[in-house]
Specification:
By secondary structure, the chain is of the alpha/beta class. The chain is built from 14 helices and 13 strands.
Length: about 375
Amino acid sequence: MTHSDVFFCLPDFSGGGAEKVMMTLIEQLCPYHQVHCIALSDSGPLYARLPQNCSFINMHSTSARQAILPLSRFFRIQKPDVVVTTMAYFNFVIMFALLISGHRPDRIILREANTPASTIASLPIRWLGRFLYKFFYNRADEVICNSKQIARELSEVGVKQHLINVIPNPVDVKEVRQLAAEKVILPKFADPSLPYFVAVGRLTRQKGIDQLIHWLSLMQEKANLLIIGTGPKRAELLSQINDAQLDHRIKLIDFQNNPFPFMANANAVLLGSRWEGLPNVGLEALALGKNVAATMGCGGLVELQLDKQTKSLFIAKADDEFVAELDRLAKKRTYSKNKALAISQLPRQFHIEAVVAQYEKVIFGR
């Protein structure tokens, strides 16, 4: 099946982790295979990364539900050989569109990027979520997830064990480290000599940026925090920063196509997530040789720390542990500007070559 047409389906080109993984796979497979990309719209910063030799099908739809019938017509006419899709709600939509199209691709690959429990909890009718997982996911040829936790949760909602395949997110370590060398201007903190932390992610409840702000306010040591991201919680977070009188030590800037220089300049990268599958930011920070402090909600990062494959990753089991780690990192003051990047702390199984090879086997059934 090496000459099969592969159709990657994603909601849009926002800078989220799931979309970044799909875009990385598209970029890596395009030179060797017939690759197509279907999306509800071309909105989002990742659209610029779409390779020229990847045909793009824009559904011009404002919602996934509205796209079901157009997607069904498309699948009925085009009859794709392989369909790869990501994110639970969009996976449900693609599977429903395929079902009513009457076309059954040679291979259907569903990628679960987040915890099923969080997806089900977000639905007004929770039993419906469990039903959709069991009904649609068991009709796929492979269900890929990026952590053992997600694999367990998929099994618990009724997805057949033999369909589930754990493949981590890919990180192009060489590219990340090259991009980190670009020069950037840091926001002006009142005291730029203080230790400096960075957090990168969408400004949503899931990412727990509000928790990071609170924990910084509890530190015994003083430190600066740069938050990079956009999202619906922006105004609420700015209000929290002002109420805590931390606007001189916490700065918030919009999404950056290249956040790596900001991360490279930091004493540590922080993740306050309430739930995750496997956060790319944590992996990319390890690729830069940075210290990473994360919560127990960070899915695959917790598993990586339990495997003791890296000494740069700290997982806090409680709020006070996170605050204590921030104080410890602030006291170290090991980072100075213009210092060369430390050696990558990212284990080999997350490197792009190893991950893409696993995806190729799954996608092409080899």
